[in-house]
Amino acid sequence: MSDKPVEAAAAGMSPALKGALVLGIGLIIFNPGSTSGRSSTVFRVIGGLLVAIAALLFMILKTRIPAFPALIIAAVITGSLGGMKSEMMIASVTRGFGGTLGNIGIVIGFGVMMGSLLQMSGASKRMAISFINLLGKGREELALVMIGLIVSMAVFCDSAFIVLVPLVKAISRSTGKSVVGLGATLAAGLVISHSMIPPAVGPFGVVSQFNMPIGRFMLWSMVVAVPVAIAGFLYTRRLGNAIFLIPTEDGSGFTRERPVSAKESVQQEDLCRAK
Questions:
Q1: Among positive and negative, which fits the CA dihedral 29, 30, 32, 36?
Q2: What is the pLDDT of residue 23?
Q3: Is residue 25 scored above 60 in pLDDT?
Q4: How many CA atoms lie within 13 A of 31 on its CB side?
Q5: Measured between alpha carbons, how far is 236 from 195 in angstroms, rounded to an integer?
Q6: Which range has the top average pLDDT, 13-22, 59-68, 140-149, 167-176?
Q7: Contact in structure between 93 and 78 (CB atoms under 8 Å)
């Protein structure tokens, strides 16, 4: 059997994934707790979990396997390498998935429906334009990070980013600010909100699993999210200055030349007439 597929798969992994994979396999093969039954099981489970995480990230980031089957495969890998019997492993995966779906499935379903309605009706884009008009010219980055924080509570962050990218390009073209900085600012707000603040699906799942008071969780998530958003806002402004790109007029590409504003155009015409 040729080793080329294995070598190709390993070549597509980042150093972090390779490290997790090697460490996990090492814990399974060279078990440090082999002299003690309980320690042996713990190290084997940890090793299986590391291998499963590396496999999960590889499947999601480097292949076209959807997230749902990738999660199931990762769960099977964890159980198999952790020493579970096949019957127990199948029952555990089924029970875990069923319990999670029973707790938050309805909320996730309604959240997805609400996000789809916001996306298809154009409400997300209208909200973004209103924020920019409210904060005024020169504060586009602040408006975009606030838009990201609010929109991503109801809409999946990747879908929201795709919907709002044309708006980011239009702002970049009209203001002369780098599309890289503006896009990164929007992405920061979207990811922070989607990862920390209910009723986004992930944070709400954490609330349900650990039976936490949702009001207190939202309060603390905002306490953490706001400083992180400010840090992201400051960093992405510097990023925009370092990587300066502006969409072309036809939208087919990007240019490093800053577009001439109407005021600058009038000034140039006055200079030409004076000469």
A1: positive
A2: 62
A3: yes
A4: 21
A5: 19
A6: 140-149
A7: no
CA angle 171, 173, 175 (to 5 degrees): 65
Give the 3-state secondary structure of 144-155.
HHHHHHHHCCCC
Question: Which tokens is 209 given?
Answer: 């699993």
What are the residue ranges of helices labelled H in 176-213? 179-196, 201-209
Q: What single-letter DSSP state applies at residue 258?
A: P
Residue 247 — φ and ψ, nearest 5°?
Answer: -65, 145
Residue 264 has pLDDT above 60, yes or no: no
């996306």: which residue's tokens?
119
3-state secondary structure of 181: helix
Q: How many CA atoms lie within 13 A of 72 on its CB side?
A: 10
Q: Provide CB contacts within 8 A for 67, sequence distance 6+.
A: 60
Express each pLDDT in 181-231 by its tens digit.
888 999 999 999 888 888 777 788 788 778 888 888 888 888 898 899 889
Position with higher pLDDT, 8 vs 254: 254
Alpha-carbon distance of 125 to 165, in angstroms, equals 10
Is there a contact between 58 and 68 (Cβ–Cβ < 8 Å)? no
**Secondary structure of residue 66 in the 3-state scheme:** coil
Q: How large is the average pLDDT for residues 105-127?
A: 65
Q: 169's torsion region: left (phi>0), alpha (psi -120 to 50) or beta?
A: alpha
74 within 8 A of 55, measured Cβ to Cβ: yes
Tokens representing 104?
């938050």
Place of tokens 């996730």: 108
Cα separation, 113 vs 108, in Å, equals: 9
Band (10; pLDDT cuts 50, 70, 90): very low
